[in-house]
Amino acid sequence: MTILTQEQTKHITDRVLSFSKADECIVTVSGSRNGNIRFARNQVSTAGLADDTNISVTVAFGKRQGTATINEFDDKSLEKVVRRAEDLARLAPENPEFMPAVSKQDYKASQTFSAKTAAIDPEFRAQTAAYAIEACKKNKLVAAGFFTDGNQFSSVANSNGVYGHQQQTSLDFTCTVRTEDGRGSGWVKRSATDANRFDAREAADVAIEKALRSVDAKALEPGRYTVILEPAATSELLGYMLFGFDARQTDEGRSFLSKKGGASRLGDKLFDQQVNIWADPWNPDVPVLPWDTENLIARKRMDLIKDGKVNALNYSQYWAKKKGVPATATPGNIIMAGTDKSTAELIANTKKGVLVTRTWYIRMVDPQSVLLTGLTRDGTFYIENGKIKYPIKNFRFNESPVTMLNNIEEIGKPVVIGGDEVPFQMLIPPMKVRDFNFTSLSDAV
């Protein structure tokens, strides 16, 4: 597939808009070229390349909306998809929360494209898998992993003069390494926009080291411990919490930020002073599109938590109009402030504690407090006097990220966590927190 240029998509969107007879029309043209390689039991199992391009057209007559998609670009096809969307809109019931298309927006470009990533070929993917496989064979270990890379473009336009076009690249690599007898397990995840920031050897070595060190895990009594959480261990926990930063959920009493009587905790200090979390589409480590893909509102930097205080909530168009405030774009990324300290330095500063590589199988227990339950996995270790003393069996935990961020003792250097497993592109640090609640043991490695 040819990645369409701005000139090409502008021509397509202009033609679509010219065919529309509706009160308003919104057009999205997008395409992707995604490569992948998967390996298991120290051999490649699948590899492939998938191309896709499509046009989505949404029209409205009053409060009645219709959407249709197509993957053909000639004028006859473009007019056909517009007519189909209009037919659907006429049949649709009125949407009581309908909001008109946004007016012209100023989209400041973000650095979402890397030529090095766009040039990834089958040899690059094969070599990434080979690094892990060959190193594991030498150490009598068993590797399984998945590498994906993507080159995409996205163009948006509407009948109010909105137009935006941007190209994006991404890569994501996960690798699980097990001992041959299954008693030890290690895991690693790496994500990047720019392939120059990805080192396949470094990633595989991390998983291998954790697998070798996690053999003969000892049982530690459940309870509350000082815990060093690597970024992959907190990414999903934070995601659950950040979904609560929605003004409507808060005002309707459905968020942990709700107060009785319809008030919110906006401005309240709920977290440790060290906690600063924001969204910024122009961050060079986790750049995202400068527009909200749902409503095409231009994204801006949004400080969600500032010095431990709840600083902002996200307002949809409908709820913003109802409350008489400006609407905001939903964040595309999440960034948490950290320090220059490595995870090793956090360990060195810990007298007694537990190191957690990752968490998984997370489920919500109580939305009002964001109490979550889940399991540790693929490398959990006991720390004593600043050193990893021995591997320990995995735990089930019951903990709220709200409490976790209020119990921070030390923060490390942020790293990128991306891919399908997390709700946002994230740049988050390892954290040392006190009183993390482990409720029972798990036999899984």
Overall description:
The protein is an alpha+beta fold. It is 22% helix and 38% strand. The chain is built from ten helices and 19 strands. The strands form three sheets. It has a six-stranded antiparallel beta sheet with strand order 3-2-1-4-5-6. A six-stranded mixed beta sheet has the order 10-9-8-11-18-17, with helices on one face.
Q: Gist?
A:
By secondary structure, this protein is an alpha+beta fold. The protein contains 10 helices and 19 strands. The model has no long low-confidence stretch (mean pLDDT 96).
Secondary structure: helix percent: 10-25%
Number of H/I helices: 10
Compute the number of strand runs. Answer: 19
**Share of residues in strands:** 35-45%
Largest sheet: 6 strands, antiparallel
The residue ranges in which pLDDT falls below 50 over 5 or more consecutive positions are none
Q: From the alpha-carbon coordinates, what is the Rg to the nearest angstrom?
A: 24 Å
Going by helix content, strand content and strand pairing, the class is alpha+beta
Give the topology string: H per helix, E per strand. Answer: HEEEHHHEEEHEHHEEEHEHEEEEHEEEE
Backbone shape: globular
Q: Report the mean per-residue pLDDT as an integer.
A: 96
Fold topology:
Layout: H1 6-19, E1 24-40, E2 43-61, E3 64-70, H2 75-91, H3 115-118, H4 122-138, E4 141-158, E5 163-179, E6 185-192, H5 200-213, E7 223-229, H6 231-242, H7 247-251, E8 277-279, E9 302-306, E10 309-310, H8 317-323, E11 333-336, H9 343-348, E12 352-366, E13 371-384, E14 387-391, E15 394-399, H10 401-404, E16 408-411, E17 415-417, E18 425-428, E19 431-442
Parallel strand pairs: 7-12, 11-18
Antiparallel strand pairs: 1-2, 1-4, 2-3, 4-5, 5-6, 7-19, 8-9, 8-11, 9-10, 12-13, 13-14, 13-15, 15-19, 16-19, 17-18
Helix pairs in contact: 1-2, 4-5
